Amino acid sequence: MPLQQHHTPSTGPSRSLPFAGVTNFRDLGGYTGHGGQQVKWRRLFRSDHLAGLTAQDQALLADLGVARAVDFRGQAESAAYAYRLPGVAYHPLAIEPTVVQRALELQRTGRQLTAQDAVALMQETYRGFVHDNAPRFAELFRLLLASDAPTVFHCTAGKDRTGFAAALILLALGVPRDVVMHDYLLTNALYQRPPGMGSQAPEEVLRVLWRVQEEFLDAALHTVDNDYGGVQTYLVDVLGVDAAAQKELAGRYLQP
């Protein structure tokens, strides 16, 4: 791939990519995993939804060699902003956006949502990823093991469903938790909330819902630790990524 040839290993390619139609598209490469090996650049990408890509964006996507898109959006979300990209296989792994539904239910009871409510809702959502949505994340690993063709996975904002997926992949590759958290929090520097989204709610609540906080990902990881005895057991027993599959994953996505 031409993009890889002009970069010295010391600096590595750019993590965030200059798309016009998305703001949170980035590469998971360059982090240090098992055995001091780096995650390969230009193989695994995470993003907000891809319906707004311009023709120039699509050319950049083709330059990156992206061959698969994994879409975690729920049915109404993906229907509202559908896309098809030439040469990119589309894999819908729907996870419904429960936090929005729960926020609406609370508002319907006449309760004004506070920032604290929003944090609690987000934490509940992340715990739900671990229990209720495990089959979707298991399927993601099956896809990654089937082929190491460059892949982008995304939801609507590329921060929660996508953030947990990215954390699982990096942890499976042996990237330390503090580095995984750092990658997760990059959303706050990159993602730009679309104008007019959720304008009924107070701004302090929107700031919680449209950003990420350590407490969100921690809620999921603590659930993994407390309910399953850690990431390793969760990968093997719940997601079906056994020792052989983890070795295969490392072989595909870590730089020898």
TrEMBL record:
Pfam families assigned: Y_phosphatase3 (PF13350)
GO molecular function: phosphoprotein phosphatase activity
Ranges for domain Tyrosine specific protein phosphatases: 135-205
TM region positions: none
InterPro entries: Prot-tyrosine_phosphatase-like, Tyr/Ser_Pase_IphP-type, Tyr_Pase_AS, Tyr_Pase_dom
The protein's name: Protein tyrosine phosphatase
